[in-house]
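A common beginner's mistake is to predict each chain separately and then try to dock the pieces by hand. The better habit, illustrated here, is to supply every component at once so that their relative placement is modeled jointly.
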Amino acid sequence: MTDQLPLLIPVVLLTAALAAPLVGLLRHHWTYRLALVAVALDAGVAIWGLVEVVRNGEIRYELGGWAPPIGIEYVLDPLSAFFAAVIACVALIVMIGARRMVEVELPEKEVPYFAAVLLLLAGFQGIVVTGDLFNLYVFLEITALAGYALVAVGERPSPVAAFRYLLLGATGASFYLLGLWFVYNLTGSLNMADVAAILPAVWDNPALAIGLSLMVVGMGVKMALWPLHGWLPDAYTQAPSATSALIAPIGTKVGAYALIRILFFVFGAGLVRDRLPVADIVLWLSAIGIVYGSIMAIAQRELKRMLAYSSVAQVAYIGLGIGLANPAGLVGAVLHVVNHAFMKAALFMVAGNMRARLGHSDISRMDAEVRRRMPWTMAAFTVGALSMIGIPPTAGFFSKWYLASGSIDEGLWIMVVVILASSLLNAVYFFRVLERAYLRPPPEGGEPAPAGRTEARPVMLAPTLIFAVGIVLLGIFNAGIVTTVIDLIRPGGL
Amino acid sequence: MPYDSVVPLLAVLVSLAAVPLILLTSKRPRLRESWTIGAALAKFVLVLSMLPAVLDGRVAVTRLGEVLPGIELTLRVDSLGMLFALVASTLWILTSVYSIGYVRDAHERKQTRYFASFAVCLSATIGIAFSANVITFITFYEVLTIATYPLVIHKETPEAIRAGRKYLAYTLSGGVALLAGAAWLYRVAGSLDFVPGGLLQDVDASTATMRGLFVLLIGGVGVKAAVMPLHAWLPAAMVAPTPVSALLHAVAVVKSGVFGVLRMAGFVFGPVVMADYGLALPLAVFAGFTILAASLLALAQDNLKRRLAYSTIGHLSYIVLAAALISPEAFAGGVLHIATHATMKITLFFAAGAIYAHAHRENISELDGIGRAMPWTMTAFAVGSIGLAGLPPVNGFESKWLIGVGAASSGHEPALVVLLISGVLNAAYLFPIVYRAFWRPSRQFAGLGEASPLMVVPLVATAALSVVFGMWPDGLVHLYDLAAAVARSVFGGAA
Amino acid sequence: MRDFLMGHYAYAASLGLVVVGLYAILVKRNLVKKLIGLNILQAAIILIWVAAASRPDATVPVLEGSGHGVEHAIDAADYLNPLPHTLMLTAIVVGVATTGVAFALLISIYRRYGTLDETELLNEMREAGG
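With all components supplied together, the output reads:
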C-alpha cells in the first residue's frame, strides 16, 4: 500500500474532481461533501506519506508499470512529501469554511465551484509528486485553468483579473515548455532524476543556460516572483474569498516547490549557484520583490489587496532563501512555505469573515465596531499580524531567523537589512488595520449593531482560529519540524 | 551550581494565568482586581523563594525545549536575574494597589484591558529577568513590546495613538536589530548562552565583527534603555496613565533595556572583550552625553511627568555608563541602581499621578502650596528627590557612590565628573518642586485633602523602602549582596 | 550564416513566431488579439518541439505491416522521434482548453463591460474604484 502513496495523493483528488459534477447533478449539496471528504482523505494520505518517507526514505511509483526514464514516475521524497502534506492540510482547514463563503458570495454555483476546487488541488498535488518534467507542465496547466475559473467568478472586474492571470500564466507555462525543449534535446530525457544525472556532462553548453532561464521564468510567473507578479494583486483581490483563501496560501508555494526542485534537484547547486548566476538573479529579484511588495501593501485601502501585495513580498522571502542556495537559506525558505501558508490562510479567512458579516473588507471603512462585533476574528488577525511582523514565539520570527542566518553566512548584509526592514514595513501596514479595528471610534449615529450573533459563523470561525493557533504552534515547535523533516530535504551540494 | 526547578517557569506564568480570569470577570471590578493582586503576591512569593538558593550560589534552571536547532528556551535564576525579578515583582504589588486607586479616582475606561496587559507585561519582565540565553531574552523582550502597546495607547486619544506608533517604531526597530545581532552572534560564537564574563571572551573574531555585533546587540536593547538618540519614545509615552508610566517606564520596560545592556556587556561580550576591541569608550560617551543632555532637558520641562521622563532617561544611562566603565565596583553600582532608581522613581511617579488624579494638576508651575494639602505625597516626593540627587540616607546614594568609586578606580575621571554634575542637575530640577510645594503658600488647594489611601499608601511604602535600603543596603533581600555577586561573576574574581 | 539559417529554417521561423506572439500579447490592446498572440506563441513552441524531432531521411514513426512480434530489427534512425509528437499532442490539448477558458472569460467581460479594449477596461475599473 505504501508504494501507492505517491499515486494516491493526486489521484484521490482527480477522481473526486471527475465525480463531483456528476454527484452534483443528483443532489446539489453532495458535491461539497464529496470535496470535503476527498480533501480529508488526501490530507490523511499525504501525512501518512510524510511519516513513511521520514522513517523509511523515498517512495517511487511507476505509472503503468513503465520504468523510468521512459515511463513517468511519481516520487515522494522529503521535499515533495512535506509540500504535499502542507498543501492538503491547509486546503482541508480552508474547506471547512469554504462552503459558507461560497454560499454568501456565489449562491447557486456550489457544484461547479467545488468541482473546480478539486481540480485545482489535484493539480497542485500533481505538481508536487511528479518526477517527470513534462508531467509537471501538464499539472501546472491543470491547476492554472482551474485557477482562472475560480478567480473569474468573483466581483465585477474578476473576469478581467482572471484573463490577465490567464495570459501571464499561459505565457509563463509556454516559456517553461520552451525551456524544457532545450533540456530534453541536451539530455534526451524528461525524468527529473535521470536528467539530473546526465546534466553535468553538458554543463558547458550555452543552450543549457537558455533552457534553464526559460524554465525559471516560467516558474517565476507561477510563484509571482518580481517582476513576474503582475497577475497576483488583481487576482487575489477580486476573486471570491474562498478562492483567495485557497490559492493565496498554496498557489505560489507550488511555484516555489517547482523552482526548488528544478534548481537544486535537477540542475543542481553546482550549476545554478557556482557556474551560472541563476541563484544570484533569483536572490536579487526576491530582494526587490520583498521591498516592493511591502511598500505597495502600505498604499492599499482594501484588506484583500493589501494582503495580496503582502503575499508578493512573503513569497519573495521564499525566493530569497532559494537564491541564497545555502543550508540555512533553504531551511528558511521551506519553513516559510508552511509558516506563510498558515499566516495567509488565517488572514484571508479573516477577510472572508468580514465580507460575510460586514459586507466589505475595506480598511478605510473599518472602525472599532469591527472588533466589537468580531472579537475572535480580530484576535486571529492579530496573531497573523504579529507573525508577519516577526514577533517571537510566532512562526514568522523563526523564518526570518533562518533567512537572516543564511544571509549572514553568505556575507550578504544587504539581504539582512532587506529582511529586517520589511518586518518594520509589515508592522506599518498591519498596525494600521489593528489601530482601526481596535481604536478608531465608530461615527456618531452609525447603525446599531444587529441583534444576535455578529461574529463569523462557527463554520468559518473555526478554520480561522485553527490557523491562528497553528501559527503559534509552528513557531514554538519549529525546531522539531526543521530537524525531523526539513533537514532531510538537503539536496546535494548544499 | 545549577539545579533543575520548575519554579522559574511558575514565576513567569502565574500572571499569565491571571489574564483569562481578568478577562472573564471584566464586569465585576472587585473580583477582577483581586486576580491581579493575587497574581502579584504569588509572583513575589515565588521569586522570593528562590533567593536563598541564589545567595548560596545555586542557580535554578528550567529547560523548555528546543526553539531552534541546537538552542533551547531556558530560564536561569542568577544574581542579576534575581535582583531584577525582585524589584519588578515587589513593585508590581504596590503598583497594582496604586492602579486600583488611580483608575477609580481618574475614572479611566477600559480597565480590563489595562489590568490584563499589565499581567502579560509582568510575565514578560520576569521572563526577561530569568532568560538564560539571547533567544529566550529576545522572545520575552518582544512580547513585552507588544504587551505594553495597549497600555501606552490606553487613553485612545490621537496623541496617545501617535505615541503608541512612535513607541512601536522605536522598539520594533530595536527588536529587528536584536534578531540580526543574535543570528550573527550564533554564527560567530556557536552558542547564545549568557556566560558570566562574556560568551565571546574565548572567541576569536575580527574587530569589524565584534564592533558590528556590539552595535546591533547594544543598539537593540539600547532603545528600551533610552540611550540617546534612541530615547525619543519615552517622553512621548508619558501620555499613558501614570501607573503605566510608573511601572513600565520606571521599572519594567526601561529596566529591561538596561538589564539587557548589562547582560550584553557582562555576559555576552564581557569586560575583557570590551576592553580589547575598544567597545567601551563609544558606549560610555553616548551614556555620558545622555546623562547630561537628559538632565538639562529635564530642567526645561514644566509638565511634571515629562520632567520625570527625562530624569529617567538620565538615570538609565547611569547604568549604561556603569557597564561601560569596565570596573567591578561600577558594574555592581549599575546593577544596584536598577533597584535604587526603581524605588525612588516610582515614588515620584506615584506622587505625580496622585497629584493628577486628585488635584487635577499636571504642570509644576501650578503646584504651589500643594504640600500643605497633600503632605504625605509631597514628603515622599522629597525623599525620592534626595535619593535621585545621590544624597544619603536614601538608597540612591549608594548605587551612585559605587559607580563613582568604580569610575575613579578605573581611571575614568571624566565619568566621575559627569556623575557629579548630574547630581547637581538632579537637585536643580527636583528640589524646587519640593520647595514650591511646601514653602510657596497658596490658597488654591485649600480644602483639598490627601489622595485616596490606595494611592498614598504605595507611594509612602516605596519612599520608605528607599530610606530603609538607604540605611541598610543589604537589608531584607540582600540587594547589595546580589549586586556584588553579579560583579564578581562578571569580572571573575578580579573584584 | 545563410547556410546555418537555411539548415535551421524551421527554428528561425518558429522563433519569429514566438516574437510575434509575445508582441501581440504585450502590445495589442484588444483582448482577443492578445489571446490570438498567446495562441501563436503556443503554436510556435509546439513547432519548435516538433521540428527537433525530425531526423534526416526519417519517416513517420509507424511500424508498417508487421503485426505483433516484429522479426527484423528496427533501426531507430529510420524513424522520427515520436516522443515530442506525443508530448505536443498534450500541449495542443492544453492550448485548446486554455483558449476555451479564455473565450469564456472574454464573453463574461464583454457582457459586463461592453468592450474588449484593455485601456477602456482599465479606465472603467479604475473609475469603479477597483
